[in-house]
Amino acid sequence: MAAERPLILIVDDEPQIRTLLRNTLARAGYSAIEAATAREALNSRDIDRPDLVLLDLGLPDRDGIELVTALGGASGAPVIVVSAREDTDQKVAALDLGAADYVTKPFDTEELLARIRSALRSRQATTPIPHLVKAGSVSIDLARRTVEKSGERVHLTPKEYAVLAELARHSGRVLTHRHLLRSIWGPAQEGQTEYLRVAVRGLRQKLEAVPSQPRLIINEPAVGYRLIDA
Amino acid sequence: MAMPVRLPSPGAKGSATPLRGYVEALAMVAASTLIGLVMARRWGTSAVDLLYLPAVLGTAVVAGLRPALLAAVASALAYNYFFTAPHFTFRIRDADDVVTVAMLFLVAVVTSRLAGKMRDEARAAAAHAARNATIAGFARALLSCSSESQIGEIACRRVSELFGCNAALLTGHPVARLVSRCPEGTVLTPSDLAAAALTLDSGRPAGRGAMRLDPAEWSFFPIGTEAAVVAAIGLARDDGGQPVDDSQILLLENLLDQVALALERTRLEAGARDLAGLRERDRLRSALLSSVGHDLRTPLTAIMAGAADLRSRGLDGDGSVAAIGTEATKLERYISNLLDMARIEAGAVKVHSEPVDLVDAVAAALRDVEAGLGGRTLEVDVPIDLPLVRADARLLHHCLINLLDNAGRHSDAGSAIRVVAALEPDGVRLSIENDGRGLALPGPADLDRFRSISGSDRKGGAGLGLAIVKAFAEAMGAEASLCASPGGGGAAASLRFPLNLVLALGELSDGG
Fold first, then answer.
1. Shortest distance, CA B337 to any CA of chain A (angstroms)
2. Same fold across B148-244 and B276-348
3. Which residues of chain B have a CB within 8 Å of the CB of A155?
4. Which end of chain A has less neighbouring CB within 10 Å, N or C?
């Protein structure tokens, strides 16, 4: 049924990019609407009530970062930020302001669709987060606070478990270093990146097939970590 | 503008002609005698001796000691002749008269000494004031100059006027270059120029008067300090005499200090102007590159998305669509490198160092370049217990992408690329090695050298990538190097994080 198709708002000032995205999204089973400016985007948010926003940060009429809060805040629709490779600071700022995820321009279509799927899943947060999250051969039981690898219980330190659980709750989405440090170690430890690095390293040793070539917990340089939900 | 004070030329100082003082002395004594003769007729001779005091005092003040002594002698003789008994003879009878003559002598000596001292002091003060006024006027004139040649012109003209000699200003090293001269058309011989070069080089006076048997006709004085000579000024007199005598050296030095300050000021101003121009050019170039980067990326994104779309619909029969995708990715990396290079050259690389796990860094880089390394086997040997290093994750990511990209470009499909990290005595080393065609380098090679070697390489772009690796590594405090692979044939590029960037393992915990 057409109404069941999630509605995605594409905010980009380049018409050819909008056309491409619309075609790609349509083939992947989404409905898409377009906005070329911040003003159009805000109108569309109020009228069309999209389920997800794809936001290019380089808009001519307004700072893209401001738009993250404006678009995501009221409607509650997850915002996926599209930005150039160099703008790491901007990405982190957008994520800290509540953006669900980001893709780097020029983006890989498959990667973009994967991000959209993960973000939409968290959109349906009205349905409770599943108790059981699977990542490769690892399954995380968030209710019983247990982790199994290939059916065998794995013992984790409390911090390791906390990091894994936080990543699992947002499975497939990138969580910034700051977000992880704040929610697990507390705001005072926000700058202690090494705690996080050590916890992630511990998780990899216990969960990854080849710890030095991680496939489950993925590093996004200078941004954060992501649990691959394949 | 104050007119320069013309200084007396050497050898012509002191008071006016000495003869005039003696004439004045005799005239005053004669006047006193005449007054005395008039007074003596009415009131007697008792007070007449005092009339000679003003004559002696006046002469002492106006003309100095010798004319005053003459006045004293003349007074004594006149007094004796006209007013003491026996009148109209030079004989002295009373002791009173002897005392009077002696007193007049004493007054002459003492007064003339005092007056002479005062006169000298007044003259010195006037000379000092004149010198200060000269220096101040000179400095003011130089202040309005904005170029070296203007300063040279003013300095030469003023110095020439002040000292009554020819002047020439020269700069340059090792060959002295004439900036300005006064009067125009003044000629310097090769020996003069050699002397000027010597002054510019050594910071000491040279030429005539500075050394015995110097063939130069000009005397050259340094402008600036001995450590940093900015120019030299040459002085010469048409009659071949010494241009400046010892009493004027101090004034000359003061003036030359002003010239040095003015020259230094124009040099700094010129430097500041150049710098501002360079900054502006850099800024424009960076702005241009950023905008070009953005403008190129947009169509590139469309091309890549279009290719991916065609492939996902199964429309890539012969692999040409896949080729479009990989080539577009390469193009994107070149653009990225150009932007990085622009940032490096503009000095705009910001470093945010944080503890980084090289396992993370290597995995992220491999994820980004894996598709472009098609067919090559990747061997990753990064120990999971390697210490963390302090680095900027973004800069490191760009370094690794470039190194992997480079290793792929210089090796054949089917060969292996190894990523090896290890803790060594001098830090943590991360190497990327290939078995490829190698670099044909005899040993360790500097990345900059590699840049120039491959600058003409048809495979281009590699040099730029490695130069970026080097610059980013240095910005983080790490060290990049390139050498022939230990196994031979290939090459190994490594990043070394010195011990101060390595986090001690024992101190690490997950804080839990």
1. 11
2. no
3. none
4. N
Average pLDDT score over chain B: 80
Which residues pair with residue A82 across a beta bridge?
A56, A103
Cα dihedral B204, B209, B213, B214 in deg (nearest 10): 50
Interface ipTM:
0.89
pLDDT for the residue numbered B5:
46
Give the right CATH number for B276-348 from 1.25.40.10, 1.10.287.130, 2.40.50.100, 2.40.10.170. Answer: 1.10.287.130
Which residues of A fall within a CB distance of 8 Å from B508? 194, 198
Tell me the HSE value of A37 on the side-chain side, using a 13 A CA sphere.
6
Q: pLDDT tens across B220-266, in order?
A: 888 887 678 888 898 888 887 788 878 788 888 888 888 888 888 88
Question: Strand locations in B218-348, DSSP E?
Answer: 219-224, 229-236
Cβ contact A36:B322 at 8 Å: no
- The residue in chain A having the minimum alpha-carbon distance to the alpha carbon of residue B306 is A20
Mean pLDDT of chain A: 87
Tens digits of residue pLDDT in B166-191: 899 988 877 788 888 888 888 888 88
Scanning the structure block, which residue is given the tokens 């008067």?
B209
Computed from CA positions of residues B369, A115, A201, A84, in that sequence, does the dihedral angle turn out positive or negative? positive
Q: Which CATH code is given to the segment(s) B148-244?
A: 3.30.450.40
Delimit the domains of chain B by residue range: 18-139, 148-244, 276-348, 354-509
User: What distance in Å separates the CA atoms of residue B59 and residue B20, rounded to the nearest whole number?
Assistant: 11
SS3 A101: strand
Within 8 A of A200 by CB-CB distance, chain B residues are 357, 360
For residue B462, give how far its alpha carbon lies from the nearest alpha carbon of chain A (Å).
Answer: 20
Contacts of B257 (CB under 8 A, 6+ apart): none
The CATH homologous superfamily to which domain B354-509 belongs is: Histidine kinase-like ATPase, C-terminal domain (3.30.565.10)
